Amino acid sequence: MTSEPTTTDVIARLTELARNHRWTWHRPAAELLDRIPGASPDRHPAATIAALDADARQTIVADADLTAAIDENFDDLQATLNTKSGPPTVAYVSAEFGLTELVPQYSGGLGILAGDHLKAASDLGLPLVAVGLFYHGGFFRQGLDGSNQTERYERYEPHNLGLVDTNQTVTVAVGAEDVTAKIWRLAVGTIDLYLLDTDIPGNSPDGRTITDRLYSGDQEHRIRQELILGIGGLRALRAVGIDPDVVHLNEGHAGFWLLEQLATKMTSGASFEEAIEATKAGAVFTTHTPVPAGIDRFKQPVITPYLTPWATENDVPLTTLFDLATSADDTGTPKPFNMAAFCLALSGSANGVSKLHGRISRELFAAVPGGDAITSVTNGIHARTWLDPQLADVFDTHLGAGWDVGDEQAWKLAAELEHDTIVGTRQQGRRQLIELIEERGAAKSGALSPDALTVGFARRFATYKRADLLLLLRTRLETLLADDDRPIQFVFAGKAHPADGDGKALMAAVVDFAHSSEANGRFVFIPDYDMAVARAMYAGCDVWLNNPIRPREASGTSGEKSALNGGLQCSILDGWWDEMYDGDNGWAIPGSELADAAKRDLAEATATHDLLENEILPLFYGEGAEPSPTDRWTQKVRHNWTTLGPQVTAARMVADYRDRVYEPALERARRHH
Ligand SMILES: *Cc1c(COP(=O)(O)O)cnc(C)c1O
Fold first, then answer.
1. Is 492 exposed, middle or buried (0-12, 13-18, 19+ CB in 10 A)?
2. Residue whose CA is closest, atom 5 of ligand 1?
3. Which tops the pLDDT comparison, 8 or 617?
4. What is the pLDDT of residue 290?
5. How many CB atoms lie under 10 A from the CB of residue 558?
6. Within 13 Å of residue 619, how many CA atoms lie on the same side as its CB?
């Protein structure tokens, strides 16, 4: 050190480290931020730093060891930021982003996928920029009243979540009102995520509540949010000086972006038809659900007042817009405005999120122009975000560089990992999971064992995911839970959408069972599922159960996270598992061909119980006095890693998008310039 750093310098560097969410996967930065006085797993480090008083700041600056670590991390971050290759050419737009539980701007799989996409794009050095909304209330926090879900919203302040004020705003006509949105920036490694926020002075009370909460409210509220996300989103990028060539619409929520793009083209002289061609050239769309109810379909009378300002200003008849946004299977008169159909009509390419989902989407959208050309890019997960740190250390030591980006040679070395190393880290994972469960009061102390076969199930309580499948054979389940020779324990978690009565009933049934004496304390439900609960479950569960009604699980990603952590899949052949199961790297629950839903469920419940009793438990516990888990179990875990490691990472996914989706779109867009 040649010059004395000032307190302001040191705190500014620390603040930048906290505001760049690279710490969510870069362990040296996370460990450094943990050393700040007052650091807590429940508080964003930016908030911890903001709360430091003068004395605490002085203490930090006086700690030579700490300031050296700050400098080292800061320089490392700058070096990473300096690898940026130029202005972003691809804009990634999504209604939700899940980067860490400390920035609660996600509801589930879609948002976490979006967060993982940004992290992998940063790792790969992609020229990508992202756009979303900032929700002051986030998504609801789940509690329990008896066995029923309760919902509560907190209020989050952007400064306390590491967001940076760009001092820029955009204004969008939302029905009869002009609504202004403030633009925040959130750094994710080399990727900037811009978030729009209408809760600012100057907007009407109605305008201010547009970005209040994620997935709450009625259709009209959704339309208002999506106008800000789509039209406001593109304007926001231009306001901060970015004009991407390609837009990636992560699900139909972002579709109004295309309206703004059409308007731009027409303003610069293109006819409506030319504007459509130019917009298509630079737009790519990812559909995420094969379930028609999962698609935004806005009723004509509800959406008309919101499309009218655009139609009037651009002199395009409303009927033309509605014609672009209907699918043959839409019912009702007049037909609704179908966001997925609209995105398909105006995107140059579209994809589903697994091979099977691609096929299903081609059928689902067969009647929409472009529907038969839907391809697929299978979802992946960001390895360093989701890997248990102990296991990441093992991989760093034994697999060498590249395992985290899916390098096949690196993953081959997983075949050599020692039995004891695998068993030791997995047992540590179970211990930590049990600790979290007990801390949250979800199990009686001592009821769960760190040595027992642990089965996990965590996902939204959407009815098609059938969280209650095992419970259909209740006696068999109770017998399993009473077995002290070969103990098995189940850990469940998940939220039901506040408006989904059936989902809530399903959840209550599962919680009821967990609380029953027959569950023997070995079937637990952890409330308030979030990324922290999820991480603990992946590290602590030996088997990951997934039993949706095929083919409704477009991809699923929780299983990929479990697999990378050494959990073995026990899953219906749906989504990602349908293409990655090789007969030996986990278990496939045999699907039933029965047309009757109740009979099919019973058949698949029986098949799942059979697998547990006849294959999974015997493999884990072995014969007689054999130590458990057996060598044969760890052999299967190794095989799980060598076969799945190269396939399930978000690095593989984002590289696929780069090569198969973005590059062709960039070329199309440039030809259209
Ligand atoms: C991975 C993840 C999901 C998505 O899991 P699916 O298997 O796709 O249902 C949802 N919520 C959290 C917190 C996750 O970590």
1. buried
2. 558
3. 617
4. 84
5. 23
6. 18
Give me the pLDDT at residue 30, please: 98
Instruction: Look at the block and give the residue holding tokens 């102390």.
Output: 445
Q: Taking every pair of C-alpha atoms in the chain, what is the biggest distance, in angstroms?
A: 80
Confidence at 368, pLDDT banded by 50, 70, 90: confident
d(CA 513, CA 524): 9
Output the pTM of the full model.
0.98
- Cα dihedral angle (354, 296, 195, 82), rounded to 10 degrees? 20
C-alpha of residue 558 to centroid of ligand 1, in Å: 5
Query: Is the Cβ–Cβ distance between 100 and 21 less than 8 Å?
Result: yes
Around ligand 1, the residues with Cβ closer than 6 Å are 108-109, 112, 459, 529-531, 534, 556-559, 561
Put the strands of the sheet holding 246-250 in their side by side order. Answer: 164-174, 177-188, 191-197, 128-133, 90-93, 246-250, 283-286, 349-352, 375-376
What CA–CA distance (Å, rounded) separates 448 from 438? 9
Count of residues making up the chain: 673
CA distance 294 to 578: 21
Q: Please name the residue that has the structure tokens 């030579």.
A: 64
Task: Please list the residue range(s) of the chain that carry CATH number 3.40.50.2000.
Answer: 90-380+654-671, 386-648
Nearest ligand 1 atom, CA 530: 13
Share above pLDDT 90 across residues of the chain, in percent, rounded to a whole number: 93
Amino acid in position 363: E
Whole-angstrom Cα distance, residue 207 to residue 218? 15
**In 529-642, beta strands by DSSP E:** 543-546, 568-572, 586-589
pLDDT-based confidence at 4, cuts 50/70/90? low
Instruction: Render the burial of 192-216: b for 16+ CB within 10 Å, e for the rest.
Output: bbbbbbbbeeebeeebbbbbbbbbb
* Lookup result for tokens 């939302």: 174
Query: Is there a contact between 297 and 255 (Cβ–Cβ < 8 Å)?
Result: no
Q: Is the separation of the CB atoms in 113 and 379 below 8 Å?
A: yes
| Beta-sheet strands, E only, within 232-362 | 246-250, 283-286, 297-298, 337-338, 349-352
What's residue 1's pLDDT?
45
| Ligand 1 atom with minimal separation from the 113 CA | 1
Superfamily of domain covering 386-648: Glycogen Phosphorylase B; (3.40.50.2000)
Task: For 143-152, write each residue's pLDDT tens digit.
Answer: 999 999 999 9
At the fourth CATH level, the homologous superfamily of domain 90-380+654-671 is Glycogen Phosphorylase B; (3.40.50.2000)
Q: Which two tokens stand for residue 432?
A: 């930590």
Please state whether the peptide bond connecting residue 551 to the residue before it is cis, i.e. omega within 30 degrees of 0.
Answer: yes
Calculate mean pLDDT across residues 566-572: 98
For 231-240, the pLDDT digits (tens) are 999 999 999 9
Residue nearest to atom 4 of ligand 1 (CA): 109
Within 8 A by CB and 6+ apart from 378, the residues are 353, 354, 355, 555, 576, 579, 647, 653, 656
Distance (Å, rounded) from C-alpha 199 to C-alpha 169?
12
Radius of gyration of the chain (CA): 25
User: CA dihedral defined by 114, 119, 120, 125, rounded to 10 degrees?
Assistant: 120
| Dist CA 28 CA 71 (whole Å) | 12
Cα–ligand 1 centroid distance for 528 (angstroms)? 13
